[in-house]
Amino acid sequence: MKKNESYTDQARRQFISKVVAGAGLAVAPGVVLHQVAQAKPADQPASNKVRWGILINTNKCATGCTDCVSACQEEHAWGAASENEAHSSKLQKAQWIRKVKVTDKQTGYVMSLPMMCQHCKNPPCVDVCPTGASMKRADGIVLVDRHICIGCRYCMLACPYKARSFIHEELHDQSVNAPRGMGTVEACNMCVKRVDNDGIPACVEACNQAEHNAMLFGDLKDPNSDISIELKQHGGEQIREDLGLDTGVRYQGI
Amino acid sequence: MKKIHFSEIEGRSSGYLVLLGILGAIVLVSLGSAFYMEHNGHHVTGMNNQIAWGIPHVFAVFLIVAASGALNVASISSVFNKTAYKPLAPMSALLSIALLAGGLMILVLDLGRPDRLIVAMTIYNFKSIFAWNMILYNGFFAIVIVYIWMLMDRRMEKYKKPVGFAAFIWRLTLTTGTGSIFGFIVARQALDAAIMAPMFIVMSFSFGLAIFLLVMMAACSWSNRPFGDALFGRLKNLLGVFVAGVLYFVIAYHLTNLYAAEHHGVEKFILSDGGIYTQMFWIGQIILGSLVPLALFYHPSWGKSRALVGLGAVLVILGGLAQMYVIIIGSQAYPLVLFPGKVVESSFSDGIVNTYNPTFAEFGLGLGGFAVALIIVALAVKILRFMPVSLADADVDPHHK
Amino acid sequence: MSLGQLRQKIVIAAVGLLLALPLHAGEPASPVVPKAKAKATEKYGCVEPVSKMRKNHMEFLLHQRDDTMRRGIRTKKFSLVECVNCHVTPKKDGSYARFGESEHFCSSCHNYAAVKIDCFDCHRDTPENSNARHTLNDETSPHHTIAFKENDPLTTKKLDNVTSGGTE
User: What percent of chain C has pLDDT over 90?
Assistant: First the structure.
């Protein structure tokens, strides 16, 4: 099937991630080939020639499966993967990604999909942020710069996807992948650190590892990327497309 | 026309000291609440990831809106040349910056990182209406302080009108900005409405004048200065017009929403099924906050009773807080629409009405804003000549018979 | 002596006394700054000479912070994670010192200087993995991707080049 073949770009990134991890062992001691296979050298900034996106096929996304959520928790040390936020109520605990069950009232048709920051091209959270802490990187990844976030929570009101969480208490032993702390707002970062190291987001990786293959990561600006080819062939929709936000996360089957 | 005289209040009576003591105690409780919240984190509040703005914002936005409205009396005298309001102008300007200070104190102390206030003051994202508001708030302080100078320094008489006009334009812009904080939120069904900006302006007229009327009643009575019936009656009637104006905008807002099928859900929520929000709307905002005050103000005999008019003004304030509660918290309590017309469920409260149980600390912080505003007024009238010696009708209005 | 002169003398004496006070007050002991796990060279210190780091580490970190966070530049030279990996050392009982404790590299000095930092409100204050405290040429978790070879002496130029993301 064409679809499976077209996952090559993503597979390449996965492969490279592993090679990079292994390279150090192979060449040591001495020169470590750390940056050899990187698409983006460490000293180069993110480029606006790419726009990272995720395509989610809801037909393949199983109701009740939370592999993507668990992977995100492990990667960034939140929720079940962390002992933090013990004082916060259920409603106060952060959720970077969640599974949403959607039922059609008339037909009873049920679908399941992961919901997280949609990495909009025109993000309302970035528009409303008074200090510019809410920001969009050149490659389209929307982030919160916790260094200048004052914790006003205006972005949380403005986000149509409820993608953002506020940290209601002091945290310790954060993951080095995800610095996070009291009084600031946070959300899905599209595993920016992995992406910068030529990897793919943890949620996508977990979904593929479990062989659901419901999530596809890639460059929306590259017409030859798997995600662009798949979008061109089978289409993909945005949630709340009416808002004109041009999201980086697209869905099939909604 | 008689020259208007202003003088400091004596400020040595035990009543004055008791007033300061009570207000100071409330401020201490408020600061304690803020410290408690900031020390522990917001988990000690009822606010959460669904209701991100809570009671502190209800109080803060109310005070900020009322602040710009409190300046109205001064504007009427300087910009619209109403002689009878001239003796009230300094108090009006003073109250406006005091209320703004109170409101901003709440807003700042509720931030997740109040220690980074300097960031908010130095790094601006100019697309953010919030950033614009910070400039508008700071500018408001500056311009109104200059305005107070023009009002109180007779040598500056000729600059009174242009500065008053600038302050008037500034305050309209400021309230437009405050309303737009909510009007610009496309994500929320109950917000995302251009009518928010003008509605907030009329709300500011109403809330600001209600507070101003009560402050003047108290200040005149406690310092034994006359407050003429005619002037009082004019202020009261004006307040009635503003209350009716707010009601008009509320009706227009809800009718517009009721017409559009996509907003039926949120209207049903606010108007009939929303529990606390429905009660806040009908009982708090509409009946107690609008209809009862209108009846008190315009009833032929009730309207002559200072006590009942004062009660009306208190109700306008409480109704205003109820309105803020419905706008700010009601809009967040109603579930976000991710998939219109479909049932949505998740671990993150999708598709369900969000619950919010405010804690004492939030009320403590909110009430502190009021106390700060009033303490500023109480101290300022002792130090400077804000208070007119007499507001007797014969002293303020040359045409009074 | 007039009254004015007397007053002047008293003021001068008082000011002098106030200025002299710190000299007599017991100097608090200098902080014991924990030693890092490794150095590039004794002279060079770690990523920059010690004196330069003492003076400018905040500038380096701030610059790195914005470069990494906002622009996606991920060189490791001034990475806070790398600082922590090498500089935060275990206490006598084997557990890592936490920020705020005098045994923690950052707080050992910041407590002394009473300079408040909020880095560790969000960043973890200890190495994440037990093997994170590696030598500079550790192969599994390279800090500087550079070899320390006896026959190939380390030059500052080479260090600069390599640690800012270039190759040897």
Answer: 24
